[in-house]
Structures are given as structure tokens and as C-alpha cells.
Automatic annotation (TrEMBL):
Positions of the Phosphomannose isomerase type I catalytic domain: 2-155
Family per similarity comment: Belongs to the mannose-6-phosphate isomerase type 1 family.
Protein name per UniProt: mannose-6-phosphate isomerase
Provenance organism: Saccharina japonica
InterPro entries: Man6P_Isoase-1, Mannose-6-P_Isomerase, Pmannose_isomerase-type1_CS, PMI_typeI_cat, RmlC-like_jellyroll, RmlC_Cupin_sf
Length: 339
């Protein structure tokens, strides 16, 4: 086993100085590395990507150029080209088909979704300058500390509940999109169409409408006073403080009472945290439409060692914490998905 000298990426959303897991790991890896307390350390890359290739740390007995004491070492890709058998069953590829990244996140990253196989093939055929391969793009990550993220759309009934509960969200979308969602279609394809219509209406809302509705929501959220919630003056009421009749939300004759109550329990449990998150997103990105995304996407709060998978076509965003991510690469070594 050989130690690697891995490059660090500095982005504005990273954690500052020694608070960053990236900086801590880099210091453990390289005793000569000096952490600058005023710099943001966002990512540590482990692999052969040309924008940040790892080097192999020299060891005693290395008789190759670059192995002298104090040298950074040869690039990992050079070692694999010289010793392709190190790749085992992947020897024919001539390179690693994946890359590891450690991310230290202090500020929310943008929402994105990666295409499925059919869409990837179409995008690659029509825009090869932007899409470097025709493969789908699932991702996997493990939390290295307490971590927050958004991943995948909420269950249909939860989104309908939030449409009723938050007038600002209703104010962002079209009436036809509202009707499609609130009709609670039973057919799965009809639900997908309704969700697609809602999301398109949401992300294409006019800037002046976004400004008005986001401002109204932030004002209603109020100011946070402690870890338990928000100040009562002008803030949104919480679901654990009120009686909720499911038929008021889902209509008379709603037949899935047990499922509805299950969703309501989840919404009650995370209510403070979601409102807290929206307030924090407002501080980080004032006036941005993404502030309401936690009402549409599943909000994950994870502890160290827990993991999650992001399938193709699932919108997701990293919000806060430290994770290790594995990213699949194409045969030319270009990254499929950049955070």
C-alpha cells in the first residue's frame, strides 16, 4: 500500500482553516502542509483527475525520478501506467474509473440533478462539448461528521401539505400546477406529471414574484432565539402546536388516513429544523428562490458514519458538514459530476 499526496481545492463554501476536515486530513497526510486560518478548505481529491491529480509519496528504495527525499512524488497516473497490474481486473482501462473526494461544507451548495442513462445518451449526442460521456451519474457519500443535505423530492402528500401550509410557496407556482398536485391523482405517472409541472412552475417563477414571496416567508419565519425554535412574534406556527384535520388538506373522503398520519408525524418531527434551515439559507443567499427548496425536497440530518445514495434524476444539494463522496469517471478520466 502506498500513501498519496492529495491536492486541496479552496472554494468559498468550504470551512475556514483548521475547522475544515479537509485541512485536518491534509495536515495528517503531509506534515509539511501549513493550514492558513483565513483560507477556506473545501475539497480533498484522491485520484487521477487532471485538474487535481494525486501523487504517490516516495518511499525508501524507490528508484524512479522524483523519489528523492523531500520530493512530492510521481503522479498516481504515472505509477498506474508503469504498473498497470495494480488495477487488477481493471487493468485494461489503464486508469481508475472513480475518484474519492472529502468535502468540508460551511455554506449550502447549489441544487443539481444528474441525468439517467437515456438522457445522458441524448445529451452526449447533441452537446458533447458539455457532456463528456453517455453514462448516467449516480453518486454515493458517507458522513464524516454531522451533516445536512437535501436529496430527492418529498413524498407527494408532504408536498401537497406544504402547499397548503405555506402561502408563499403557493404564490410562486401556477394555479394549474396547484390543481394538478392537490387533486391527489392515484396513478403514478399522473403524479410524476403533476410534480414535473409544479417544479417547472416553481423554477420559472418571475423574479419579481420570487422577491415578493421569499421576503414574505422570511418575515413570517421571524428571528431564531435558541436551539428550540423561533421567536413567537410574527413567526410561522409549528405543526406540533395545532390540530390538523387531514381532510382539510387532502379533501373529504381521503382514503389513506394511516399514510397521511405517518407523513404528518414526520413533518411535525422536523418542523423546527426545516424552518431553521430556510432562515439560514436566507442569511446565506438573501432573496434566492432556493430558500423554499426544503419544502419540496427531503431534508437529511445525518450523523458520522451514515451514508446516502443519490440516484440519477434526483435533485440534491449539500448544505453543511463533512462527507466523503465517490464519483464515477468516464474512461478518459473526466469527472461526471462536479459539486
Amino acid at each position: 500500500m502506498r500513501r498519496l499526496n492529495c491536492p486541496v481545492q479552496n472554494y468559498a463554501w468550504g470551512k475556514r482553516g483548521s475547522d475544515s476536515m479537509v485541512a485536518k486530513l491534509k495536515t495528517l497526510e503531509n506534515e509539511g502542509f501549513e493550514t492558513e486560518e483565513g483560507k477556506m478548505y473545501a475539497e480533498l481529491w484522491m485520484g487521477t483527475h487532471p485538474n487535481g491529480p494525486s501523487r504517490v509519496m516516495p518511499e525508501a528504495g524507490d528508484f524512479v525520478e522524483g523519489a528523492e527525499e523531500g520530493h512530492a512524488g510521481i503522479f498516481l497516473i504515472e505509477l498506474l501506467e508503469t504498473h498497470p497490474h495494480y488495477l487488477g481486473d481493471l487493468e485494461k482501462l489503464g486508469d481508475l474509473p472513480f475518484m474519492f473526494k472529502v468535502l468540508s461544507i460551511n455554506k449550502a451548495l447549489s441544487i443539481q440533478a444528474h441525468p439517467d442513462k437515456k438522457l445522458a445518451e441524448r445529451l452526449y449526442a447533441t452537446r458533447p462539448d458539455l457532456y463528456k460521456d453517455d453514462n448516467h451519474k449516480p453518486e454515493m457519500a458517507v458522513a464524516l461528521s454531522d451533516f445536512e443535505g437535501l436529496c430527492g423530492f418529498r413524498p407527494f402528500e408532504e408536498i401537497v401539505f406544504n402547499l397548503h401550509r405555506y402561502p408563499e410557496l403557493r404564490g410562486l407556482v401556477s394555479l394549474s400546477a396547484m390543481r394538478a398536485m392537490c387533486s391527489l391523482p392515484e396513478d403514478l405517472e399522473e403524479r410524476r406529471d403533476a410534480l414535473r409541472k409544479l417544479f417547472h412552475s416553481y423554477i420559472t417563477a418571475k423574479p419579481e414574484v420570487v422577491t415578493t414571496q421569499v421576503k414574505a416567508l422570511v418575515q413570517r419565519l421571524g428571528s431564531r432565539v435558541d436551539e428550540s425554535g423561533f421567536s413567537s412574534d410574527g413567526s410561522v406556527d409549528h405543526t406540533d402546536d395545532e390540530e390538523i384535520d387531514l381532510e382539510d388538506i387532502y379533501g373529504e373522503g381521503y382514503e389513506h388516513k394511516e399514510k397521511g398520519e405517518m407523513f404528518l408525524r414526520r413533518l411535525r418531527a422536523e418542523d423546527y429544523y426545516v424552518q431553521d434551515l430556510m432562515r439560514r439559507l436566507s442569511d446565506e443567499y438573501p432573496g434566492d428562490i432556493g430558500i423554499m427548496m426544503p419544502l419540496l425536497l427531503n431534508y437529511m440530518r445525518m450523523g458520522e458514519g451514515e451514508s446516502f445514495f443519490m440516484a440519477a434524476n434526483e435533485p440534491h444539494a449539500y448544505l453543511k458538514g463533512d462527507i466523503m463522496e465517490v464519483i464515477k469517471l468516464d474512461l478518459h478520466g473526466w469527472i461526471w459530476s462536479l459539486i
